[in-house]
UniProtKB/TrEMBL annotation:
InterPro entries: GH (IPR017853), Glyco_hydro_20_cat (IPR015883), HEXDC-like (IPR038901). This is beta-N-acetylhexosaminidase. Keywords: Hydrolase. GO terms for biological process: carbohydrate metabolic process. Belongs to the glycosyl hydrolase 20 family. Pfam families: Glyco_hydro_20. One of its GO terms (molecular function) is beta-N-acetylhexosaminidase activity. Residues 150-295 form the Glycoside hydrolase family 20 catalytic domain. It is an enzyme of class 3 (hydrolase).
Amino acid sequence: MVTKRQALRAVALCLVLVAAVKLLLSEYRTERKQKLAIVDPGSFWHQGPKVKEAVTVHKSEVLNSFFNWAQKPEVPEPPVEKGADTAPLETSKGPARIVHLDLKGAAPKVKYMKQIFPLFSSLGADGVLLEYEDMFPYHGNLTILRSPYAYSMEDIEEIKSLAKLNKLELIPLVQVFGHLEFVLKHERYFHLREVRAFPNSLNPHHPGSVALVKDMVSQVMDCHPDARWFHMGADEVRGLGESQDSKNWLHSNKGDVGKMFLNHAVSLARFITERRSGVRVILWDDMLRKISPATIKESGLQDLASPTIWNYLKKMDTDGIGTLISRYHEAGFKGVWFASAFKGGTGIDQRWTPLDYQLQNHLSWIKVMNSMTKYPSVTLHGILLTGWQRFEHHTVLCELLPVGIPSLAMCLQSLKHGAFDEKAKMEAHHILGCTIKVEKDICEGSGAFSGSQIYHMVFYIHTNLQKEVEALMKHYHIKGGFSRYHRKYNFANPRIIGFFQGRLKKLLDKWETYIENFRMEMEGIYFPDTVEEWMEENVNANMDLLRENARDAERILKLNGQPKSLKTF
């Protein structure tokens, strides 16, 4: 006799069989196979994730999984330890590839971000690291920190929407220790400087210091409620230990500057993690390199943050990077980030991105990433492809973002494919609309990427403006009969002026037209301060020389070769 319990069991079994048959039919119609790829943490995305074993999930296994589910009791998920290294940003392709936007110089308008965020995504980026500096719309007591062209709150919301639309993780970055020039340059904060004469670093012992950076961090965190990571900078803390407060502290603590750094870093990292549950902290690693693993472990930083090991050199010491990974593992860090450079990591006033330099840097990082199997207990969260716009707040601009786009494409594709091979080159060409020639430092072709006009115009200015002006200034008759001395005293032979005046005027007219068109392109992407600065640093000196010579030639020509004028001009 069939019991009620047996009947219920039979009904449940029938339901399971029906569901399984539906799944089989669906799979038959689509003729798709699922594959489970076990990602090797040291593979670093050789043509997508490197697969230790590609396992085809057969239909029989699907049926078995259904039957096993029906027969096994439900097991609750294990509890997650608070503060553990969870919810990683790693993607199905491997560790995350994050593009760094350094906004402390040449910050682009939001309308340009609308164009480049889809480009970043198509090139293989998983996220964007936003180093706000003075472009964040700080309010209240911090309003003074804002650039005159700082983004508005509405702009930030649009940036977040653009990132979400293009499946890009946003990671905000706020400096909390070093590189606070944009804050400490204001007289209001002079008393918080570690070295009174320099605006670089914060005095960690002054009670107002921690309150200041906590306020800054809070405003940015409030604007990014969905951020899973928060980068607190903390690199290159210049002059640490030189204030009287620091000297007093060091006198009582065996002169341990490393511990002094850790105290401040831990305080801020703990503040960030406690302010919002689940947020994980990143910091640059250079200040940790000379601190012993035991001292780091004692501080507790390893439970609050992940270090970013950065190196932007063409030929970097990969064995040295391995030593750092081992030290951080010994210190108790469960995961690390790496940081390369696609631009802004070479010359302090670099105008044009050296492609081979940036490629070799990334190939070195790929070598390091392929060696991560040596460190099975250390998770590689991802790599930050830095695109520095200034070395610091008070220095000149490095390469403009559009100038660095081909380099970024080359670097992202190299990371994606494990090398800048033919497949990587073809994919970059398809997306950019131009062909990257590493040996020539150029992307040949018209280019279809956003900002390509500026890319090509900067190249033309870079390779021709100064060269053509210098060539004209070496003209026989300018050198011999129209020198600075001649122009100063209005003394020249009209016959000599006639030999070069036409050529001078033609060159000036050509460049006036070209620079005006270039300015219009720049104004479409950048705010007025960036346009002015770039022109002043890269164009105006040569243009002014042409203009001055043209004006002087016209004026002195009218004097008909008269004696030297006692009145200078």
